[in-house]
Design goal:
- The chain is α+β, with helices and mostly antiparallel strands.
- It has a single domain, classed as Endonuclease/exonuclease/phosphatase (Deoxyribonuclease I, Chain A, 4-Layer Sandwich).
- Helix content is 24%, strand content 32%.
- Strands 1, 2, 3, 4, 9, 13, 14 and 15 form an eight-stranded mixed beta sheet that branches.
- The longest helix has 18 residues.
- The radius of gyration is 17 Å and the shape is globular.
Length: 246
């Protein structure tokens, strides 16, 4: 089975014209799962979802914004995956999925990370609880709002405790952080740039889909780049990683 996932901090979905442009992009990208962060919408109705994604088989789950701040919407094509369970918590939206093609069960969490260290530690605790609760192969995607290494931020030279805590979280759960095709930085403005948008996933998930790669797509409509994670034995382009059962 092949699988395509998009994660993107869109910096707001309030404008109808912007939603139409996103709809056109999703039609071209043809993803199976889409996670958009910083929607800035307290409520996500069927009408809003239809204005973003034209797929007639779409289903969705969302975390409303706090006023005009934050918000996550997770959407999926029901021809590719079936929702088994769901969880909407303070920093994340999660679904336990079952693949339609092969009945394989796994989980996806879409997140929008806070800026403060105290709230970020709460997020790591929240995600740890989710991972231990379902105990299935996992994929996380979103705007983490933190880097792992100084090389992931323009001009940075030293590591911080927040960076160490991010790496500790990845190590604790045995997650994989693979290189980004198409460029290092995923967010930029006139004076700064960093790699804060990405996918993480468990080796068991990568093993199931055989090939996995994540790629930075063209920057449009936001100061964050859309990120594509593509897996499956027929992924277009050269494979970044291959996992063979022993």
């Amino acid at each position: 089975m092949n699988l395509k996932m998009i994660s993107w901090n869109v910096r707001g979905l309030n404008e109808a014209g912007k939603r139409l442009q996103i709809r056109n992009l999703l039609r071209a990208w043809r993803p199976d799962i889409v996670c958009l962060q910083e929607t800035k919408l307290e409520w996500i109705t069927r009408g809003v979802v239809r204005s973003i994604w034209s797929c007639p088989y779409v289903d969705w789950l969302y975390l409303g914004s706090e006023g005009a701040s934050g918000g996550i919407v997770l959407m999926w094509d029901r021809r590719a995956v079936e929702k088994v369970e769901e969880a909407v918590w303070r920093f994340s939206v999660s679904c336990r999925f079952k693949n339609i093609g092969d009945q394989f069960e796994w989980a996806f969490t879409g997140l929008y990370g806070p800026n403060s260290n105290k709230r970020r530690r709460k997020m790591w605790e929240e995600l740890t609880g989710l991972i231990s609760w379902w105990d299935v192969p996992w994929c996380l995607g979103g705007d983490f709002n933190i880097i792992r290494f100084p090389s992931e931020r323009l001009g940075a030279t030293t590591s911080t405790w927040a960076m160490y805590e991010f790496s500790d979280f990845i190590s604790l759960h045995g997650l994989m952080d693979i290189p980004m095709e198409g460029g290092l930085y995923t967010w930029s403005n006139n004076s700064s740039a960093s790699r804060i948008d990405l996918f993480l996933f468990s080796p068991l998930l990568a093993d199931h889909f055989t090939l996995f790669a994540q790629r930075r797509l063209s920057k449009i409509l936001s100061d964050h780049y859309p990120i594509l994670l593509e897996g499956g034995s027929h992924r277009r382009g050269r494979p970044l990683f291959r996992f063979d059962n022993m």
